[in-house]
Amino acid sequence: MVESHGRRVPNKWAKTEALLGNSYLAAHIPPTRSYTADNLRHMLQMHGMVVIKPVLGSGGNGVIKVQKEGNGYSFTYYARKRHFATFAGLFGALGGVKKKRAYLIQKGIRLATIAGRPIDYRVKYEKTASGWVYRSMVGRLARQGLFVTNLCRGGTMMTAAQGIRRSLSSRLVASKKREMRELTVAATQVLEAKFPGVNLLGYDYGIDKSGKIWIFEVNTKPQ
Question: For the chain, what is the radius of gyration of the CA atoms?
Answer without folding.
Answer: 17
